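Give me structure tokens for this 172-residue protein.
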Amino acid sequence: MKLKIFFLFLMLSGFQTIAQKFGYIDTEYIMNKMPEYKKASETMNQFAEKWTKDLQAKYAETEKMKQKYQQEEILLTADMKKEKLSEIDKKEDELRILNNSIFGLNGQLFQKKKEILKPILDEIYKTSEKIARKYKLSFIFDKASDMSMFYADPRHDYTDFVIEELGLNIKK
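Here you go.
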């Protein structure tokens, strides 16, 4: 979608785009150089581990319910079987909903990640803007984003300039 909008912009602006300069950065590479990102990543992993343990405990509880049902199944009447199976199904549905609310699209983990990474990404974007002004670039693309780049000439890579501006270690 972003690519379509970009090409539409290029077509609408006509021949003026020939004089425009483009560059790209790799936010993934930049973030891996940032100590703040390492701390944020550890924090996100802690949240994920905690939620995973909670879910695993609830899944284990459901499995115990199933095993107990299988052991008692012979002794139960048809109505009691139906009631127990209904309880198990309800519990499994609750677990699916809980799993989706935590790990699903726009779930708690996604929201937490967005919240934790926002200050880091804001810093990268502000620095990218400085670099764009300094080198008179019209556009800076992110190589690590969902926009595909089939080829990128390394002379248009401004990642190291952003890292330098952020005061991070450039050693590869």
